[in-house]
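FAQ

Q: What does a record look like?
A: Structure on top, sequence underneath. For example:
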C-alpha cells in the first residue's frame, strides 16, 4: 500500500496539504474573514442577524473589557458556559483575540461537574447564560473564580422584543432558576463599556494555546485537550478545503444544532462556515424537535450536521416529513456511527446522503471525511483530510496491512499539544512520532478508505472472538419494532463475556425472544445477545453519544 493511498479519492481541486503560513492565529482568522465579508451575515438566531463587522466590533470591545476591567492576561483561562447563542462567538473571539484560553463548558453541567472542570482548568473568569447561573452560584463556594459575566437570552434583541423575550423566558417558560451572585457583570455591559479601539492586540502565533477542550468522558474522567491557535486554524483550513468544492460563493446556510462547546459543531460547522463567508443559524435547544423542524422550514439550510439520534428524532416528527428539502445540498454525520437504516431513510426523505465525518477533541475537530462528491451513504468515515496522516496499528504499535483491523492512529497539524497538566496521560496516547492513538478500532482498505469497527474499550471478547457492538446494533436496528438499541459486554463464567442488548421499543409487543431470534438470522452465534433489557431510553452524552459505560454499570447490579 502506498504511503498515502487516500489521495486518489480526493475530489478535483482539493490539495494534499494545507498552507498555514497565511493565518498565524484565530484572531487573524477573524480579521481576514471580516476584511472579505464585512457586511455579510455571519450568525443568526431568534430573528437577529450578526454581521461580520458587528462580530468584529463587539468582540474587540469585550476583549478590551477582559483586559482593562478584569485584568485578564494572555494565557489566562476563561470558561464559556453557553449554549448555541449569539453571545458565544462574540465571547469566544473576544477571549482568543485577548490571548486568553477558552474553556468550553456544557451548560447542562451540575455544580459538582463544574467545580471539577474549573479546578482542573484554573479558569479565572466565566461567561454564563442566566439559565445556568444558579449552577455557577452553587459552584462558587468551592472554586476561585474571580469574575462572573452573566448573559441574558434577550441581550441581542432590540426593544421592545427584548422585554417580551425576557418575560417569556423568565415568567412563562420559567427557564431561569433564582440566583444571586455578588458582583456579577452583565454581558451587555461588558460588551459595550469600551470602544473597539481600546483593545490592545497581543502577539499571537500558532504555538499559543487557544482552547482547553474537555473530552466527553464517555470512557472515564474528562480530560482537557490543550489545543493551540495553530491546531484550530489547521482544522478549519482542512475542512474548508475539503468542502469548498460543494460551497458556492454566497447563499450557503449552515444550521448548527449540535452544541458549540463541542469541537464538531464549533470547528467543523461554525468556524468553517464563518471562514468561507457564509451564514450560521444557531439552534439553542436541539432537543426541542418541533422548534428545530420550524428552523428547517424557516431558514431552509443548505448544509446541516447531525448524528444518528438527531436524524432519527427529526424523521419521527410528522411535520419534518412534510418539509421542502430542495435547498438542502449536504448532510454530514458524526460523533457516533450512523446506522445504515437511518441513513437510507434520511436520503429517501431529504434527497441528500449522510456523509460521515470522523473527528476528535484531541485533533481540534475532523480527521477524516467522505468526499462531498459522494452520492450515497457507504458506512465508512471516508479518507484522511489534507495534511492528516492515518495509520492502522496493532497492539505493538506496528502498522497493519490493508483490510486488517487495528487502532486508528492520527498525526497532523491539528493534533493537540497534550492533555492539560497530565504529562503521563499525554505520553500514553501520543508517541515520539507524533501519532495520537485514538482508542478506536478501524480498517483501511487499499484505497485508503477507513471504516470504524468500534471503540477499543467497547469490544466484547467472547470465547476468544472479537464482537463489536456497532455491528450487532446495526443488525438489531433493522428490526421494525426497535426504536433504539445499544450493546455492551457482560461477564460470563463460560465465555468470558457475552453481548447484552439494551432496547427501546417502538412496538410495545416486542419480546426478548423476538430480538434474539432476529439477531440469529444475521449474526454468528457468539455475536447474538444473550440478554435483552428493555428500557424507556438510553443514557446519552450532551451531543447524543450513547454512554455504554453507564449501561455496563447497570448490568453489574442487575445480572
Amino acid at each position: 500500500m502506498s504511503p498515502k493511498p487516500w489521495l486518489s479519492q480526493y475530489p478535483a481541486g482539493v490539495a494534499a496539504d494545507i498552507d498555514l503560513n497565511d493565518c498565524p492565529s484565530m484572531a487573524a482568522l477573524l480579521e481576514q474573514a471580516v476584511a472579505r465579508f464585512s457586511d455579510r451575515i455571519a450568525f443568526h438566531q431568534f430573528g437577529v442577524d450578526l454581521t461580520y463587522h458587528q462580530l468584529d466590533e463587539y468582540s474587540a470591545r469585550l476583549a478590551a473589557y477582559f483586559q482593562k476591567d478584569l485584568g485578564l492576561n494572555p494565557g489566562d483561562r476563561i470558561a464559556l458556559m453557553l449554549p448555541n447563542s449569539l453571545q458565544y462567538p462574540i465571547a469566544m473571539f473576544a477571549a482568543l483575540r485577548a490571548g486568553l484560553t477558552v474553556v468550553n463548558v456544557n451548560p447542562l453541567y451540575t455544580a459538582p461537574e463544574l467545580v471539577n472542570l474549573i479546578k482542573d482548568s484554573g479558569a479565572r473568569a466565566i461567561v454564563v447564560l442566566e439559565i445556568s447561573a444558579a449552577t455557577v452560584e452553587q459552584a462558587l463556594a468551592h472554586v476561585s473564580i474571580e469574575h462572573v459575566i452573566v448573559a441574558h437570552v434577550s441581550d441581542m434583541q432590540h426593544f421592545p422584543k427584548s422585554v417580551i423575550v425576557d418575560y417569556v423566558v423568565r415568567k412563562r417558560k420559567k427557564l431561569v432558576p433564582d440566583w444571586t451572585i455578588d458582583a456579577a457583570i452583565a454581558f451587555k455591559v461588558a460588551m459595550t463599556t469600551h470602544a473597539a479601539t481600546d483593545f490592545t492586540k497581543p502577539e499571537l502565533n500558532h504555538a499559543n494555546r487557544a482552547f482547553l477542550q474537555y473530552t466527553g468522558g464517555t470512557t472515564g474522567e474528562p480530560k482537557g485537550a490543550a489545543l493551540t491557535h495553530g491546531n484550530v486554524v489547521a482544522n478549519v483550513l482542512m475542512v474548508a478545503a475539503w468542502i469548498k468544492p460543494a460551497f458556492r460563493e454566497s447563499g450557503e446556510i449552515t444550521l448548527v444544532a449540535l452544541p458549540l462547546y463541542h469541537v464538531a459543531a464549533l470547528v467543523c460547522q461554525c468556524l468553517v462556515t464563518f471562514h468561507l463567508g457564509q451564514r450560521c443559524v444557531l439552534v439553542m435547544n436541539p432537543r426541542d424537535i418541533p422548534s428545530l423542524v420550524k428552523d428547517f422550514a424557516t431558514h431552509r439550510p443548505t448544509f446541516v450536521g447531525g448524528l444518528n439520534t438527531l436524524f432519527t428524532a427529526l424523521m419521527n416528527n410528522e411535520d419534518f416529513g412534510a418539509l421542502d428539502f430542495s435547498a438542502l445540498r449536504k448532510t454530514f454525520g458524526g460523533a457516533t456511527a450512523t446506522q445504515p437504516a437511518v441513513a437510507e431513510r434520511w436520503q429517501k426523505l431529504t434527497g441528500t446522503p449522510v456523509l460521515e465525518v470522523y473527528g476528535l477533541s484531541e485533533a481540534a475537530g475532523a480527521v477524516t471525511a467522505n468526499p462531498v462528491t459522494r452520492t450515497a451513504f457507504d458506512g465508512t468515515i471516508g479518507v484522511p483530510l489534507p495534511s492528516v496522516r492515518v495509520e492502522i496499528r496493532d497492539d505493538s504499535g506496528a502498522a497493519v496491512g490493508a483490510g486488517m483491523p487495528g487502532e486508528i492512529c492520527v498525526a497532523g497539524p491539528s493534533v493537540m499539544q497534550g492533555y492539560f497538566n497530565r504529562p503521563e496521560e499525554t505520553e500514553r496516547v501520543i508517541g515520539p512520532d507524533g501519532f495520537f492513538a485514538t482508542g478506536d478500532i478501524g480498517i483501511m482498505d487499499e484505497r485508503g478508505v477507513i471504516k470504524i469497527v468500534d471503540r477499543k474499550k467497547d469490544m466484547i471478547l467472547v470465547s476468544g472472538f472479537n464482537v463489536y457492538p456497532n455491528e450487532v446494533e446495526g443488525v438489531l436496528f433493522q428490526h421494525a419494532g426497535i426504536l433504539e438499541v445499544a450493546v455492551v459486554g457482560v461477564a460470563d463464567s463460560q465465555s468470558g463475556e457475552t453481548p447484552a442488548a439494551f432496547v427501546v421499543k417502538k412496538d410495545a409487543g416486542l419480546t426478548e425472544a423476538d430480538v434474539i431470534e432476529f439477531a440469529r438470522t444475521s449474526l454468528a452465534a457468539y455475536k447474538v445477545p444473550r440478554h435483552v433489557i428493555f428500557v424507556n431510553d438510553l443514557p446519552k452524552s450532551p451531543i447524543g453519544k450513547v454512554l455504554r459505560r453507564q449501561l455496563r454499570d447497570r448490568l453489574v447490579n442487575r445480572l
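Q: Is there anything notable about this one?
A: The mean pLDDT is 92.
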